[in-house]
Design goal:
The protein has helices spanning about 1-25, 50-60, 60-65, 80-85, 95-105, 150-160, 180-185, 195-200, 230-235, 235-255, 260-265, 275-285, 290-305, 315-325, 335-340, 355-360, 370, and strands at about 40-45, 65-75, 90-95, 110-115, 120-125, 140, 170, 190-195, 205-210, 220-230. It is globular. Helix 6 links the parallel strand 6 (about 140) and strand 7. It folds into two domains: about 35-115 and about 220-370, Periplasmic binding protein-like II (D-Maltodextrin-Binding Protein, domain 2, 3-Layer(aba) Sandwich), CATH 3.40.190.10; about 120-210, 3-Layer(aba) Sandwich (D-Maltodextrin-Binding Protein, domain 2). By secondary structure, it is an alpha/beta fold. The longest helix has 23 residues, at about 1-25.
Length: about 375
Amino acid sequence: MRMKAKAAVTDLVAKVALGALLLTGCNKSSENTSGGPAKVRVGYIGLTCEAPIFTAVEKGFFKEEGLDVTLVKCEWANYKDVLALGGFDVTHHLVMYFLKPVEQGLDVRFTGGIHRGCLRVQAAAKGNIRSIKDLRGKRIGVPGMGTPPFIFANRVLGANGIDPSREITWLVFPAGELGLALDKGEVDAVANSEPIGSLLLADGKVRNIADQAADAPYKDEYCCAVLVNGKYLARNPKASAAATRALLKAAKWVEANPAAAARLSVEKKYLASTVEQNTIAISHLRYVPSISGAEAAVRLAATEMQRAGMLNPSTDVVGLAGRAFVHLDGVSDEWLESLQVEKVVGGQAPPDWDIRRYAQNSLSDPFCSACLIFPAAR
C-alpha cells in the first residue's frame, strides 16, 4: 500500500511538471515573416560531445543563419520529455537513444549527422575470446542497462546470431571500474565508450571484439545527429534547416579545432572539466558532419535494434527510419563539402599527448559523457 501511495504521488508530480512544460510551450512560434531573426531554443545537458552546440553559439553560426538562439539547460531524467513537449526545439543527440521513443510515437526528426561512433565491445587481452561469436553464454559488463554501450553490444550480438536476453549475462559496473571487473574475473567482456576503451587498450588490458569506430558496418556510423521537434519543424521549416546548418558547420569547426573547441566549452562554463581533459576528449571523436551518413545510421541502427529485440518484431524498420529522418532544404552533403571553416592557430591537440595522461586525471569526466552516464532508456 505504501508503495502504491508513493507511486501515485510520483505520478502526480510528474503530471504537474509535464503540465507546466505544456503551458510554457503554448506560446508557439511560427515561421518568422517580420524580417527579424527567427527564434530557436537549443537544448543541451552539458556534455563534452555537445561541443558543436557551444561552438555554434559562441562563434555566431546561429546568428549567421538569421536565428535568435536561446540555450535551454536540461537534465538527463527529463531530456526526451522536454523535447517532445516543446520545451526546446533543436539539439543533437544519440540516434540509438531516440529510436525506441520514435517507434513509440515521439514526434522528433533527425536532420544531419554530427560525429561518428565511440562505442566498443572488448575482452581480456589474455583470454580466449576473440570474436563476437565467442561471447555466447558469457558475462558482459556495461555501465548501465539501456546505455549506448549496452545497446551497441546488443546490436552486435544480434547481428551474429546471439540472443542478448537469453544467452548473455549482463552485469552493471561504474564506467571507470569495467577494467577492474575484467582483471578480477567478474566479467568475460565489457561494452564501453571513450575514453574507457582507449585507456584499457593503452594499458594492454583488452583486445577489441567490436569497434564502432573501425569495424564494418559500424565504422562510418554516426552515433550523434541533429534532432528537431516535429511540431517546430512543421511550423518553422526554414528555421529548422538554418539551425541544422549552424550545428553542422560547428561540427566541422570542432573537427578542425578540437583544442579551441575544448577551451571554449570550459572557459564559457558549459561543462565542468579542464581544458586539457576536454581537448583529449574532443580530439578522439570524429566530427565529420554528413547527411547521407546520418540517414544510413538511422536505418542500420533500427534494423539491428529490432534484430536484437530492442524494437518490436512487427515494426516496419524501413518505415520507422523514413519517419525518423528528414531532408531539409539547403542541407546536403554537397553543401557540406563546399563549406569552409577556419583553422585557428593553436586550436589543435598537441600530437604528443598520450591518452594515459588522461587516466591520471579522472575517469569520472568521460569524454563522451552521453555514452556513459545516463539513465536506462525508457
